[in-house]
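Quick one: co-fold with nicotinamide-adenine-dinucleotide.
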Amino acid sequence: MVDTAAHELARSKRSHDDPNAKESAMAMVVEGQPVVVTGGGSGIGAALAAEAAARGASAVAVADVDLEAAEAVARAIADSGGTARAYDCDVTSPESVGELADAVARDHGTPALACANAGVMAPLAPLLEASGADAEWTMRVNVLGTLHTLQSFGRLMATGDEPGWLMATGSEHSVGVPHLRAAAYTASKHAVLAMCDVLRGELPDHMGVSVVCPGITTSRLWDSARLRPEEYGGAAESDPMSGMLMEQKGMSAATVARRAFDGIAEGHFLIPTHYHPRIYAQLRADEMAEAYDRLAEIDTADYDLNTIVAQYLSEADE
Ligand SMILES: NC(=O)c1ccc[n+]([C@@H]2O[C@H](COP(=O)([O-])OP(=O)(O)OC[C@H]3O[C@@H](n4cnc5c(N)ncnc54)[C@H](O)[C@@H]3O)[C@@H](O)[C@H]2O)c1
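Sure, here it is.
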């Protein structure tokens, strides 16, 4: 049985559920404004950087732990008439991301859009056999790296009152598609969505946040272990079959980037780029709803943490 009142209450707690509210702000933001992309040296990040330039960004900061790759992307943007600059940044280090934010603000001004895109996928292995070091590396880059990027650029944007937007690269694995033999990666992408879901309720009115959730996209993600630091086992070769599948079956990174920018231009929080994850997301939502209906009794007391905290705060104010 569905408790309609509880349903309505949960809906009302989605504070940024009016997509049109941010549309005009975002249109201003990209055109004539600085944009920064982490993991901008390859794949989706390189395409996001190129798309930002094509949409009239005043400058694109292409940040990557692989500086040479970032420089090549910045050069390609400049060759097409845009303005771009490469930055060396390791998102696993809050200091490195903080220095990036300072450098971008100094060189181009506060970015209107920051894309927390850098991510890795460790060599595939079933959870019971996977290495703990690979799981740690995945979490450090995909979860903490995203957190550091959202924090550094979010704080910069929050100090002013100009429109500012944060976009994290999640995945179809954020919304319920399990990636077999990549449990830590799947978990890391759930975490990206969760962090952004919290953040959207906390940001000031002049800021917004989106999560782009691509499915398979042609990139070098399959070969992430080329970058694995020594402390997590060092560089390694990856299964070339994954590379072949990504190359042959993936959506182009340019299409993903275009859909991502279309999504933020309309102020959407969730930005899917491929359709099939909807089926998985629906199955998960149905499974959860059925479990709650079957096992959790509808209580007369309100145990909703958000309601409890809101009531406490309003009573403390009186
Ligand atoms: N390719 C896909 O099928 C797919 C699907 C969904 C989501 N994603 C996500 O897209 C994002 C981009 O990945 P991609 O597919 O373009 O892969 P990619 O390997 O082509 O690009 C990732 C970039 O991130 C950089 N990077 C890695 N570790 C870093 C660090 N510590 N600090 C800074 N930069 C770092 C790499 O040097 C590389 O340039 C990732 O978050 C990935 O999880 C990819």
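If it helps, Strands lie at 34-38, 59-64, 84-88, 113-116, 164-169, 207-213, 270-272.
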